[in-house]
């Protein structure tokens, strides 16, 4: 596939604006860096001459590139080979594997989140889990690409994962059967009382249009008018900045959606309502946005915009806290640089970097039996090594604890299971919307 097609697909995986890398800008080097380049050349020459085994230039050059980018932040990186192939996978829309979003952390494979309904999700793999062995073979220290390639495979075949779950004393094994993972970014469900739920799993191409279609399909299925909407952005790692703007614009009729500020010319951009979709498709109906620690980047743009404009009540847990924009800079025909080029800000001027979006109503996921244990090891942007610092500064105690003891949230997972409640956060959002639906408000006013 031509690189141009892959470059266009970058919107599937990062909040990205495509910026051409010019020869002139690449050639400009601060004169004061000359001494540092001499050190680099000296190290290169010593390795070539004296390292115990011969080392090829490609290995050393790639190491230098990776080292430079690792010194910046966790989201900048060099893409080629299998990394670009993953972009092609996103274009194709499906692959055969487990359905996991993972990162490398301290040499191990850490789960960001399983895709909803995927084999990994059904098997019980959770965000924050560490995968240490595949089919009994240790993968700690192995390249992430190699581990991901091993987890993918023919539909119907099984693989055994050894899981270390923070909060548990011992690792455990899970056998997961591979399946075809359909990258379905938007799904919906109509709940009792004509309350709709739209689940956005990632911000890939056409998410704004897909949400609009989901809304129209729900209206057609409902018996009467829809009385409220839950926009579920939990465990959504983000994606296209443009699609985050489009989704927000579905429910806003005026004002700023998001702005971004960077150092390079052209990186200071503001996005406003009524530029993608006209009007509020839900007509001002009561609305809840659900977020959690896995809601990142584009998810935080939407939650922040709807919260700042008081269009929706944000519920759940404090979000991940990724407030940066990555741009894809082509490097020849088969490689690219993914570089952090700007920070973004909500309509009120708030940066979510490190601190995330605070929900209006903090609702713990009480239906998770491992909630208390896993909360101690929850990973967010502020926990990533080398993360960008919020420009206004945030006190540690402001981001360490999400909630205090609340008398409303004292039920155990076992008690909720007996009541048939499998997803407490969703249950609480639905109950809130039922109490505030126009029909119920009218009934109470009589």
From TrEMBL:
GO BP term, example: signal transduction
GO CC aspect terms: outer membrane-bounded periplasmic space
Keyword Nucleus recorded: no
Top EC class of this enzyme: hydrolase
CDD domains with a match to the protein in the record: cpPDZ_CPP-like (cd06782), Peptidase_S41_CPP (cd07560)
Source organism superkingdom: Bacteria
Protein name as catalogued: Carboxyl-terminal processing protease
Keyword list, A-Z: Hydrolase, Protease, Serine protease, Signal
Pfam families to which the protein is assigned, alphabetical: CtpB_N-like (PF22694), PDZ_2 (PF13180), Peptidase_S41 (PF03572)
UniProt entry tagged with the keyword Hydrolase: yes
SMART domains associated with the record: PDZ (SM00228), TSPc (SM00245)
UniProt lineage: Bacteria, Pseudomonadati, Pseudomonadota, Alphaproteobacteria, Sphingomonadales
EC numbers for this chain: 3.4.21.102
Family to which the UniProt record says this protein belongs: Belongs to the peptidase S41A family.
Stretches assigned to the PDZ domain: 84-152
Signal peptide boundaries: 1-27
GO MF annotation: an example: serine-type endopeptidase activity
């Amino acid at each position: 596939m031509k690189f141009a097609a892959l470059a266009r697909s970058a919107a599937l995986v990062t909040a990205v604006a495509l910026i051409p890398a010019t020869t002139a800008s690449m050639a400009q080097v601060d004169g004061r860096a000359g001494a540092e380049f001499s050190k680099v050349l000296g190290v290169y020459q010593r390795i070539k001459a004296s390292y115990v085994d011969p080392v090829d230039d490609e290995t050393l050059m790639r190491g230098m590139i990776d080292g430079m980018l690792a010194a910046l932040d966790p989201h900048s990186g060099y893409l080629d080979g299998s990394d670009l192939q993953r972009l092609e996978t996103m274009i194709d829309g499906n692959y055969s594997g487990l359905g996991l979003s993972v990162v490398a952390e301290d040499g191990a494979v850490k789960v960001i989140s399983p895709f909803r309904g995927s084999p990994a999700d059904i098997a019980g793999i959770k965000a924050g889990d560490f995968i240490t062995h595949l089919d009994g073979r240790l993968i700690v220290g192995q390249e992430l690409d190699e581990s991901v390639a091993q987890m993918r495979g023919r539909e119907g075949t099984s693989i055994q994962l050894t899981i270390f779950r923070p909060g548990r004393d011992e690792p455990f094994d899970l056998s997961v059967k591979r399946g075809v993972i359909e990258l379905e970014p938007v799904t919906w469900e109509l709940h009792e009382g004509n309350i709709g739920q739209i689940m956005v799993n990632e911000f890939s191409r056409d998410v704004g249009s897909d949400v609009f279609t989901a809304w129209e399909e729900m209206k057609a299925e409902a018996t009467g008018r829809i009385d409220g909407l839950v926009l579920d952005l939990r465990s959504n790692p983000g994606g296209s900045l443009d699609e985050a703007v489009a989704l927000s614009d579905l429910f806003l009729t005026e004002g700023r959606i998001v702005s971004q500020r960077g150092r390079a010319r052209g990186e200071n951009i503001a996005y406003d309502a009524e530029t993608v979709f006209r009007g509020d498709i839900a007509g001002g109906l009561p609305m809840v946005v659900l977020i959690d620690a896995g809601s990142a980047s584009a998810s935080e743009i939407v939650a922040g915009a709807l919260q700042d404009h008081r269009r929706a009540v944000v519920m759940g847990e404090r979000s991940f806290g990724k407030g940066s924009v990555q741009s894809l800079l082509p490097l020849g025909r088969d490689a690219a640089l993914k570089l952090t080029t700007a920070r973004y800000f909500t309509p009120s001027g708030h940066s979510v970097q490190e601190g995330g979006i605070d929900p209006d109503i903090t609702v713990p996921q009480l239906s998770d039996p491992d909630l208390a244990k896993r909360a101690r090891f929850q990973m967010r942007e502020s926990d990533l090594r080398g993360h960008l610092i919020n420009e206004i500064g945030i006190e540690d105690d402001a981001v360490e604890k999400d909630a205090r003891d609340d008398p409303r949230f004292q039920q155990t997972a076992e008690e909720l299971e007996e009541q048939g409640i499998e997803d407490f956060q969703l249950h609480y959002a639905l109950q809130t919307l039922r109490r505030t639906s126009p029909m119920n408000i009218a009934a109470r006013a009589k």
